[in-house]
Specification:
By secondary structure, the chain is of the alpha/beta class. It has 16 helices and 13 strands. The chain has helices at residues 3-9, 20-30, 36-39, 43-50, 72-88, 90-95, 97-112, 125-135, 152-165, 181-190, 214-223, 243-246, 303-319, 321-339, 369-380, 405-417; strands at 60-61, 119-122, 143-147, 168-172, 196-202, 227-231, 250-254, 266-270, 345-347, 360-364, 382-383, 385-389, 392-397. The strands form 3 sheets. Strands 2-8-7-6-5-3-4 form a 7-stranded mixed β-sheet, with helices on both faces. Strands 9-10-13-12 form a 4-stranded antiparallel β-sheet. The chain binds pyridoxal-5'-phosphate. Pyridoxal-5'-phosphate binds next to helix 8.
């Protein structure tokens, strides 16, 4: 390979097309008068944002649901933080490490709309939510409510507390295409008894992309004396909401998903009055019962990841939450609207825009999800993930801000031909 091809493959020649944060800010400022819904359709604008990403040319990545990898500007800053922490060594760890983490957690709290003393930085949603499930003072016979469409790691943690403390788990099944919010609220309500203590609900179901009516579920559960823990792995920095508006007791999310933070960062929100009720996963020194730092002892960890969260917030804020949400919803509808009525297509995601954003799940009659993912990859160079369980058979399709309508045209062509 000659030097130019090597550099091109390594992405080192692509910096010319990068906007960087200042360029991005200028671009956005020039168009700031346009509503997000209009800008959502502007391929030229989003094409420039695409230039900030180093994309593997081998396939079209429509599997951003696992990990929304970093734009170059955040990646470069992250690498700078790795170098800086390595340069300062123990001095960094013994001086500003904790102050920096606290200041960044406060920025995340501002994004989440909650108070800074109700939110901590964790390593991921799994740590956040399993700390709550495992940290409540369960008594034998207590009940918990959850759905079969919830994420496996949390369902496993509930199984563990069931074996350990005699908790009874009640599992509902959420329809892929609900008629109304009330249908879902009633479903959860029907599983509550006088012994129920905790209800877990996904803000967005990861296998279908369905957004659930969390506020209504919380209000219903609170009326029955039940606390609610929300799995927001896919919601934070994807579509707009504030945690207090949801009226939940606990909320967890992963920042390496929609905020595009380096792998291994998440948040846990605990409503102030509940902080004292949770046993930490890892014990912390003496603290006041309502001090959330009780729940935040994880030992020595990659602190440069914490620092890069601030860069990811800058990138996200510069694009603008409304613009990002509008683009992601536009991209999803761009392809689902074209295929939804094809007779061989099964869409496992509601059509109602208020129940979805970027993610949707599509199946094809008589084709197993694994086979569909295989043919999409081998014949059409589209990378997705097959889902086969919990009432969902299809491939999850997850674009990101760098995805073009041309990428999605390839998907639509594939789905039309595969019938
Ligand atoms: C709904 C949901 N909850 C929790 C998780 C776990 O996230 P993490 O592995 O970052 O802890 C995921 C991961 O995809 C998810 O989709």
């Amino acid at each position: 390979m000659d030097k130019r091809s090597f550099l091109k493959n390594a992405g080192l020649l692509s910096f010319g097309s990068m906007l960087g944060l200042d360029g991005l800010a200028k671009l956005v400022n020039n168009l700031s008068a346009l509503p997000g819904s209009v800008l959502a359709k502007d391929e030229d604008f989003w094409g420039k944002i695409r230039g900030d990403y180093l994309l593997k040319p081998d396939y079209i990545n429509l599997e951003n649901g696992y990990y929304c990898f970093l734009p170059q500007v955040t990646l470069e800053n992250f690498i700078r933080h790795v170098r800086e922490v390595n340069y300062q060594g123990s001095y960094y760890m013994r001086t500003v490490q904790f102050d920096n983490k606290k200041a960044i957690a406060a920025r995340l709290a501002a994004l989440a709309g909650c108070s800074a003393d109700e939110l901590i930085i964790t390593r991921n949603t799994t740590e956040s939510l399993d700390m709550i499930i495992g940290g409540l003072d369960w008594k034998p016979g207590d009940e918990a409510v959850m759905a079969e469409q919830d994420y496996g790691a949390m369902l496993e943690m509930f199984k563990q507390v069931s074996r350990r403390y005699g908790v009874v788990n009640k599992i509902v099944s959420v329809p892929n295409l609900p008629e109304s919010d009330e249908e879902i609220v009633n479903l959860y309500s029907s599983a509550i008894t006088e012994k129920t203590r905790l209800l877990m609900v996904c803000h967005m179901i990861n296998i279908t992309g369905q957004i659930l009516p969390v506020r209504k579920i919380c209000d219903m559960a609170h009326n029955r004396g039940v606390q609610v823990m929300v799995d927001g792995a896919h919601a934070f920095a994807h579509f707009r909401f504030s945690i207090p508006e949801l009226n939940c007791d606990y909320y967890g999310s992963s920042l390496h998903k929609w905020l595009s933070v380096p792998l291994g960062a998440g948040i846990l929100y605990v409503k102030k009055e509940n902080i004292g009720n949770i046993w930490p996963l890892i014990a912390e020194g003496e603290r006041k019962p309502d001090d959330i730092s009780r729940l935040n002892h994880i030992g020595t960890h990659p602190v440069h990841t914490d620092l890069a969260i601030a860069d990811a917030i800058d990138f996200y804020n510069t694009i603008g939450a409304e613009r990002k949400e509008a683009r992601l919803r536009f991209l999803q509808h761009y392809w689902t609207d074209k295929v939804r009525n094809m007779p061989h297509i099964i869409l496992n995601t509601p059509a109602d825009p208020s129940r979805t954003c970027a993610i949707a799940n599509v199946g094809i009659k008589d084709i197993k999800p694994g086979e569909l993912a295989d043919v999409l990859f081998k014949k059409y160079n589209i990378y997705t993930v097959p889902i086969d369980g919990a009432g969902v058979q299809g491939c999850r399709i997850t674009p990101n801000v760098y995805t073009t309508t041309a990428d999605l045209d390839v998907l639509v062509k594939a789905l039309s031909e595969l019938g």
